[in-house]
Design a protein that fits this description.
Elements: H1 3-19, E1 22-27, H2 33-45, E2 49-53, H3 55-62, E3 78-83, H4 89-100, E4 105-111, E5 114-116, H5 118-125, H6 130-170
Antiparallel strand pairs: 1-3, 1-4, 2-3, 4-5
Helix pairs in contact: 1-3, 4-5
Length: 171
């Protein structure tokens, strides 16, 4: 690999670190090409970046940043997954595929300027996604209005029931 390509890779990794909400490192040693392609496609579908990286270049790129805590995790075949807009998605997908692919293993992650271990990645994967949180919030906002409307309509429904019973009795 020539020097210009190495500098481009280092610049790319620094850019990923600067823009990403969450980074997850995984060991992909032993995965075949079709498994890596399936994983990559699944991540891409959810707008998650994925790249196999050279450990030495990653160490150089992260050395002068808050992500230098990941330094010792850059061993073996390392892949990096990142998301610029949803910190949960890379963890969710990689944890799912770790169960499916025997050879895939999680190494560590980086979120909110802190290193997270494998247990932290698994805990992060169990959190609701941004869209799920939005749906829950909308449900919370709509619930009081729906209850109020039910209370307002209850007397009218009761009156209609009494009138219908009276009409049925006289018929």
């Amino acid at each position: 690999m020539d020097k210009a390509l190495k500098e481009e890779q280092i610049s790319f990794l620094k850019d990923v670190l600067g823009k990403s909400e969450c980074i997850v490192l995984a060991n992909i040693e032993g995965l075949n090409a079709s498994q890596v392609s399936e994983l990559r496609a699944s991540l891409h579908k959810e707008n998650v970046g994925f790249r196999v990286i050279k450990n030495k270049l990653a160490r150089i790129a992260f050395a002068d940043t808050s992500a230098k805590t990941l330094y010792d995790d850059f061993v073996g075949s390392t892949a990096i997954a990142w998301s610029e807009d949803n910190p949960v998605t890379p963890a969710k997908i990689l944890v799912k595929y770790e169960k499916e692919f025997e050879k895939l293993s999680l190494k560590s992650g980086f979120n909110s300027d802190a290193r997270i271990d494998v247990d932290g990645i698994k805990a992060l994967s169990k959190l609701p996604s941004l869209d799920e949180l939005r749906a829950q919030m909308l449900g919370l906002f709509n619930a009081p209005a729906a209850k109020l409307l039910a209370q307002i309509n209850a007397p009218a429904t009761h009156v209609v029931g009494v009138i219908k019973a009276h009409v049925d009795k006289n018929a």
